[in-house]
Amino acid sequence: MDVRVTPTLGTVGGRLERGDVSGPVVDHDRRADDWRALLRSTPAAFLTLGALLSILLIVSGIVAGQTVTSRQATHSRLLTSVEPLADAAQSLYSALSVADAAAATGFIAGGIEPEEVRERYTQAVGEASTQLVAAAGGIAADDRVSARLLADIAGRLTVYTGLVETARANNRVGNPVGAAYLGEASYLMQSELLPMAQELHERSSSAVTSTQRAAVQPPWTSIGMLLMTVVALTGVHVIVSRISRRTLNLGLLTAIASTGILLCWLLVAGLISSSATRNAVERGGEPLGVFTDSRILAQQARTAETLQLVRRDVTGEYDAMFDGSMDRLEELLTGSAAADVESQAEPAGRAAEARTAWLASHDRVQAALDRGDYPAAAILATGPGPDEAAAQFHAVDRALEQGIDLARAELRGNEVRAADTLSALAPAAWVLTVLAWLGVVGGLAPRIREYL
């Protein structure tokens, strides 16, 4: 017979007391035991494992997808804006330097300057204007320093060309004041325009280097997380197989295969992309820096050589500037990074040989100046002869320009290869992650329903 104990009220010592309350306590304990049993049950374990695997899959998939997308964006930014800006800055400096040297050469000739010198000056000024526009297109929206440099260069270039034209007009009629105008123009170029162009080039070159360094290391974090996910999926598959007494779980095997494919793809693509980026740095970026700096030094030496004649310097200031630039040029070309790349070794060698011949020509110019033979010095420095300083400088400049083109092609080619290696991986990461998650759901849901 079912006997139910009901609570009663009684008095003990004048106080109301509740009777036996064992019924509700027993019910509460039973419900707690039921919950504990449910939490320790196989369906609850499967649900917990499914939730943990889902979180791990989603996190590792998001990290892998974002890593690949970020790498692609880095390569794309380098190819479309950062590296073109560095090249435009280098070309801008070169054009400004050529324009200044051409203006000085025309003044050295006296009277009406030679047509080829005038044409060289005009082309250089036009090239400088073109590179200003090209550089403006590659500046990031938040790069206010580079934008200010470009604006200042553009404004001062207009002032410079005006001073040069005034100097030419006076030089044609034999007015001595032309020398003063040319000196002012040259001072503006040497003290403001060229330093600003060099600062712009240094900033853009540093941006290229830092951008490449961001993509050199393989994505070890993403690879590690995917590896951990594969191990976790494999462990869960073993557990589920033992509990359900089924050797294979197609859903979990699909998840393992999808995550494993993504892991292998990311590992191979990441290593190939990192290797290509490293080649872009070692075979492209570093030699490019050598060739670019060498060309700037050669142009600085040529400017010092022509200004020495324009100003008829007897203090040795410009000759010392020439020697310093040429010594530094030798250091860069001897044992440089460019010499280690077969395709770039030839222009580096030709530049070194032309530099040696240029030094010999400059020594003849200096000897003529030392004996007071200014006309002979002017011819040796600016004449069209193949053994004269102008020809040797152009030989150096052409070799370095070719080296720049080769190094830049090497850099961009490797960067394109690095970007192409990752092109299909970003969407594949999302697809494989979703497929793996569906495999987890499809593998665990039937096993959970078996206990319900």
Automatic annotation (TrEMBL):
The alphabetized UniProt keywords are: Membrane, Transmembrane, Transmembrane helix
Task: List residues traversing the bilayer.
Answer: 44-64, 220-240, 252-272, 424-445
Superkingdom assignment: Bacteria
Q: What is this protein called?
A: Secreted protein
Native source organism of the sequence: Rhodococcus indonesiensis
